[in-house]
Specification:
This protein is an alpha+beta fold. α12 packs across α14 and α13 packs antiparallel against α14. The protein is built from 20 helices and 19 strands. The protein binds CIS-heme D hydroxychlorin gamma-spirolactone 17R, 18S (HDE).
Length: about 725
């Protein structure tokens, strides 16, 4: 049928047994000529296509077999095309309509499948079916996302990450649509369009894209003091995660659990990554965006395809009305956390992501999360942000997916029995059989389906009363105390990063008055931070912003708020192994073994993608050519070079960047003595520190990988001063 390219002849992959020298490589030009595609020639009467009974026949959407998919129907070889060409018309028509509106927020995302497993029963506090039986697994679909950028933006924007989980429970779909940051910018949903308009591209120019470093965002934020707790989080390294796999997830709002007796308990939801927390540096993020804009999605895809299934613990903070009444802040205020020291997170389950999608559009693009999808045993709180979200999500699905039947799309369809009378509408796939489309009815033996007061969802009968008015509770008025608590919970390096990030972002604001207004809020959070940022901007310290409530100085630091105070490990991380011809084969092997033992992975980076011939004469295939595998893509690097190889690398600007960036980003660097000329030319040889380890034996290799468990050699940052 269709003319096919001939596959280029393979020159082997991985470690090839037989010795091969570069001169043994096939003649590339010859191979290209041999494999190049030949257009059908002739006068149009001949197609050069032959039927192949073994290959499935291509058809139109109507199922009509297609004879020629290369040429439209026309009069004569060089004549006009014909309107009756239904195959061409259908193909182009479909193509023209292949896009649906991207999400207005969280447009760029990546979804995968997995399951939730209950490890501790919550039957005493909730009747939700998925929390009853220990060991039971509930299928899940998770979509991670950035918020501000459009679908085609890059992964390493400084931004909040969406962490949306759809759980296909036996009693319907529960969507826990959370973020990787436990608080939000605003307290009332009515401000959401303004927040998002301010952070997204300006309406006149259509930029900046996927970033908050611009006047509009900081203008809005500095006029909205309630956003300053969240500002601390997004200026921290939480907003530039190394991987979706190394970030926490939070339900953000307070929800309710309701048990079989109708008793309500407040709950906040947490996801804690088994591999620990890790972020990149801002300078690294900027470079990753250029080197691999798909860094996060590729990372998740490769981890799952490689059988390293990412896992999170599922935790709940449970508290009652008495706690809610005595808590310093309002549990309905989404700009506040409840510190874990005050209400510990109980681990009751785990989430494992073990399957990539078959089709990005069908699943990741069409998945429709709705905060109002909850199941019996779970209920909303009166958090005004959550209440507004419950209205918004259904609305957005209709706009994006174009029909109230979006629940018929497999990724959105519940996996439990369904019985209802909603039918018809665009793209109805599953209209029920039978005569009745109303309830109650008396058709069939029992007449049904019918409501079920025992099994059915019932709202918790919370008492509410008050005047109808546009107002905000006084209990929401403290905007700085928890921002300060977050800041003082960070390590010195993390505090430096927050200061550097604020200075960077405000340096991108054209209006000095906006910069000053932001600093006036920082003065209410931490004077040293405000001063540092003001100095970085060469700005005279303004007066502190007028605060509705004075900042509490008595809130103690809370360790879980810091990334660097969490346990660290090299498991799930990636070593970049830069090798040259003639490099020490035994050392390379020892490093690979140590990496695998640590539960990590590696990538060979080399001057040629075809690989290098090590000192034992064996060719080692590369995963990246040096300019395609900069060190920003790796958690640690090892440079195993021969003398001539190192001399060649030293003359190559991308190899020098590989070493100098790894150094500047505080990565652990392993290197052979022979690699020194590269380190010299990269300007790091004189500054070598304890994060730079010489490698000459298998023992050194093991010690180096053990050291990599620290993930970064932070003392270096104070000497390099990268400013972010
Ligand atoms: Fe969303 N949000 N949001 N949001 N949100 C959407 O729904 C909205 C908020 C979150 O991977 C939209 O399907 C309002 C907080 C995630 O598909 C939209 C308000 C949190 C995702 C919407 C908020 C989130 C969305 C756009 C203020 C963290 C991506 C497309 C009241 C707890 C889900 C869509 C996915 C998506 C509205 C605030 C998380 C427009 C009105 C707070 C993870 O409905």
């Amino acid at each position: 049928m269709v003319s096919k390219r001939k596959p280029p002849s393979s020159n082997g992959s991985a470690i090839v047994g037989a010795a091969k020298s570069p001169s043994d490589q096939p003649d590339i030009l010859a191979a290209e000529t041999e494999t190049s595609y030949r257009q059908p020639q002739g006068d149009g009467g001949e197609t050069h296509q032959t039927a192949n009974a073994e290959v499935e026949t291509l058809t139109t959407q109507q199922g009509i077999p297609i004879s020629d998919d290369q040429n439209a129907l026309r009069v004569g070889a060089r004549g006009p095309s014909l309107l009756e060409d239904f195959h061409f018309r259908e193909k182009i028509f479909h193509f023209d309509h292949e896009r649906i509106p991207e999400r207005v927020v969280h447009a760029r995302g990546f979804g995968v499948h997995g399951y939730f497993e209950l490890t501790k029963s919550l039957a005493d506090v909730t009747r939700a079916d998925l929390f009853q039986r220990v060991g039971e697994k509930t299928p899940a679909f998770v979509r991670f996302s950035t918020v501000a950028g459009s679908k085609g933006s890059f992964d390493l924007a400084r931004d909040v990450r969406g962490f949306a989980v759809k759980l296909y429970t036996k009693e319907g779909n529960w969507d826990l649509v959370g973020n990787n940051i436990p608080v939000f910018f605003i307290q009332d949903a009515i401000k959401f369009p303004d927040l998002i308009h301010s952070v997204k591209a300006a309406p006149d120019r259509g930029f900046p894209q996927a970033q908050s470093a611009h006047d509009n965002f900081w203008d809005f934020a500095s006029l909205s003091p309630e956003s300053f707790h969240m500002i601390m989080w997004i200026m921290s390294d939480r907003a530039i995660p190394r991987s979706f796999r190394f970030m926490e997830g939070f339900g953000v709002h307070s929800f309710r659990f309701v048990n079989a007796k109708g008793k309500s308990t407040f709950v906040k939801f947490h996801w804690k990554p088994k591999l620990g927390l890790q972020s990149v540096l801002w300078n690294e993020a900027v470079k990753i965006n250029g080197a691999d804009p798909d860094f996060h999605r590729r990372d998740l895809w490769e981890a799952i395809k490689g059988g390293h299934f990412p896992e999170w613990e599922f935790g709940v903070q449970l508290f009652d009305d008495a706690f809610a009444d005595r808590f310093e802040f309002d549990i309905l205020d989404a700009t506040k956390i409840i510190p874990e020291e005050q209400v510990p997170v109980q681990i009751v389950g785990r989430l494992v992501l073990d399957r990539t999608v078959d089709n990005f559009f069908a699943e990741t693009e069409q998945v429709a999360f709705c905060t109002q999808n909850i199941v019996p045993g779970i209920d909303f709180s009166d958090d005004p942000l959550l209440q507004g979200r419950n209205f918004s999500y259904l609305d957005t699905q209709l706009k994006r997916l174009g029909s109230p039947n979006f629940t018929h799309i497999p990724v959105n369809a519940p996996r439990c029995p369904m019985a209802h009378f909603q039918q018809d509408g665009h793209m109805a796939m599953k209209n029920p059989k039978g005569r009745a489309n109303y309830e109650p009815n008396s058709w069939g033996a029992l007449g049904g389906p019918r409501e079920n007061p025992e099994r059915g969802f019932t709202s918790f009968p919370a008492e509410v009363a008050g005047p109808k008015a546009r107002m905000r509770s006084e209990s929401f008025a403290d905007h700085y105390s928890q921002a300060r608590q977050f800041f003082i919970s960070q390590t010195p390096i993390e505090r430096k990063h927050i200061g550097d990030a604020l200075t960077f972002e405000l340096s991108k604001c054209e209006r000095p008055d906006i910069r000053a207004r932001v600093v006036s809020h920082l003065l209410n959070i931490d004077v040293a931070l405000a001063r540092r940022v003001a100095d970085g901007l060469r700005l005279e310290l303004p007066e502190p912003a007028k605060a509705a409530r004075p900042t509490r100085q008595d809130l103690p630091p809370s360790d879980p708020l810091s990334i660097l105070k969490h346990p660290k490990s090299f498991a799930g991380r990636k070593l970049g192994l830069l090798v040259t011809d003639g490099a020490d084969a035994k050392l390379v092997k020892a490093l690979i073994e140590a990496v695998e033992k640590a539960g990590a992975v590696y990538e060979i980076v080399a001057p040629y993608i075809g690989g290098v011939v090590l000192d034992d004469g064996v060719m080692l295939a590369a995963a990246q050519k040096i300019d395609g595998g900069p060190s920003v893509l790796y958690d640690a690097v090892a440079i195993i070079a021969s003398e001539t190889g190192a001399a060649d690398l030293a003359a190559d600007a991308t190899a020098r960047d590989f070493a100098s960036d790894a150094f500047a980003h505080c990565k652990f660097i392993g290197f052979t003595d022979a690699a020194m000329p590269l380190l010299e030319k990269a300007g790091v040889a004189e500054a070598l520190d304890e994060g730079c380890l010489r490698l000459s034996s298998g023992k050194d290799a093991a010690a180096f990988i053990a050291a990599c468990a620290e993930l970064r050699y932070w003392p270096r940052e104070l000497t390099v001063d990268l400013d972010a």
